[in-house]
Amino acid sequence: MTAGGDGLDDRVPFLARLEGGERQALLALGSPMTYAPRQALLREHEPSAYVLLLLTGWTKVTAAAPNGYEALLALRGPGDIVGEFAALTSKPRSAHVTALEEVRAVAVEPARFTEFLRSAPQVSMTLLALVSDRTRAADRRRLEFASMTVRERFASLLLELARGFGQRTADGVELQVPLSKQELAGSVGASREMVQRLLKELRDRDAVVTGRRALVVRRPDVLRRIAGGGP
Q1: How many percent of the chain have pLDDT more than 70?
Q2: Domain of life of the organism in this record (predicted)?
Q3: Which terminus in the chain has less CB density within 10 A, N or C?
Q4: Edge to edge, what strands does the sheet with 208-211 contain?
């Protein structure tokens, strides 16, 4: 997805938007952290203790509804920043961030982070631009998904993941972010059982190949037809 106007693509991470000196100065404020796969980096509703700058590895951002349903809000990876809203507003965290694989990060205390932003207005503007790009992309995605069936939303999601997080192999485009069926379901507002049925349909049509936390897109043309409302 590309942000409209002259903005950067919403997938361009925070650290990649900074000048070299700004990036090094910010990273120097924090302490190194390492998280194991499936370990929580941040917990929803907890007070902010630090801002995390991700160096390696992918994470999922989720939020829980009152009925227990967990929605996947975003994926954040190398160069991204998480936990900044709670630090800037002094409010409890609004989402849960979990490592999908081993993650290395730098943790910066909220007071040091906000003081750095006050002393570096260009970095503050860069962070504001990132938030704007992400908000536009999220609004656009909600608008597109509102007019789609679950089947169409799921095909569109797989295409989006293949474009943003895929690596071409001899078998097709392999998704580099390990997501479970429940996590895929949370992205499109469906049940795990529905995602299982949709994956079976796509496997039968040779559109995808699946394994344990692995998914390869073999026929993007099939996914495009489904996402566009085709048979």
Answers
A1: 94
A2: Bacteria
A3: C
A4: 166-169, 172-175, 214-217, 208-211
